[in-house]
Specification:
Length: 240
């Protein structure tokens, strides 16, 4: 049987039979991988803990007819336990993994892989508040996928900003001339926060007040779910 080896982050797992699991992973070079990890639910398993959600591993697989088979897994990033110890971090990581699963196809994306691994590492180290880390991840993941939002110039006419009306269906903020009736208006602090989250300016993001953070989170959730064309089930568990 032909084999391959790659770095991968575990997105989700499903039970298979009495002792096996189906593991869905986003890999560095081989895109999304769905593989069977045999015997990992037994206490004597050599690498079961390395194939839990949010873990990053160097995996070796051989190619099967419908599902590949994991034959070896060495830990590269043991983020799962630290994330699971903190509920806000765990729920944020769950949304990230679900988004990565939906936003990448079987060919995958190196940029999406690196972004997800970096976000999970940041969550495990408690570098920033989980909601800010999640919102930053979602905005960047959507941008990599080709849906970069505009938070300054008009997304429709390119008229120089700042503009305060945000319309997810139009790609970001829009000028008053093209804004539909009833569209929400954002204050300058919220717009600044959204731009900072997209660009990774954490000093600005962490200086924002709770009201602006809550408003920004709502905008990010609406924008992400519009472009993914489906709801993110994990989002309902977030304290936003």
């Amino acid at each position: 049987m032909p084999t391959y080896r790659d770095e991968a982050v575990v997105l989700r797992t499903h039970k298979l039979g009495e002792a096996d699991r189906i593991v869905t992973m986003l890999s560095r070079q081989h895109g999304k991988i769905r593989a069977v990890a045999k015997g990992v639910r037994r206490t004597a398993s050599k690498f079961g803990a390395r194939l839990e959600p949010f873990m990053v591993a160097d995996v070796q697989c051989y190619i099967g007819r419908s599902l590949d088979i994991v034959t070896q897994a060495e830990s590269l990033g043991s983020y799962g336990a630290d994330i699971a110890d903190d509920y806000p971090s765990y729920t944020a990581a769950s949304v990230m993994a679900e988004t990565a699963d939906k936003i990448t196809d079987d060919d995958g994306s190196l940029q999406q892989y690196l972004l997800l691994v970096g976000a999970l590492r940041s969550l495990s180290r408690r570098e920033h508040p989980p909601t800010l880390t999640l919102d930053s991840y979602l905005l960047r993941a959507l941008s990599i996928a080709g849906w970069a939002p505009s938070f300054t110039d008009c997304a429709v006419t390119s008229a120089p900003g700042p503009h305060s009306v945000f319309v997810a269906q139009m790609g970001g903020v829009v000028s008053d001339e093209v804004a539909p009736p009833g569209a929400p208006r954002l204050d300058l602090e919220t717009l600044g926060l959204l731009g900072a989250l997209l660009e990774g300016r954490w000093d600005v993001a962490e200086a924002a007040g709770e009201r602006s953070r809550a408003q920004a989170s709502g905008i990010v959730a609406a924008y992400a779910q519009f472009h993914l064309e489906r709801s993110l089930r994990s989002l309902q568990h977030m304290d936003r």
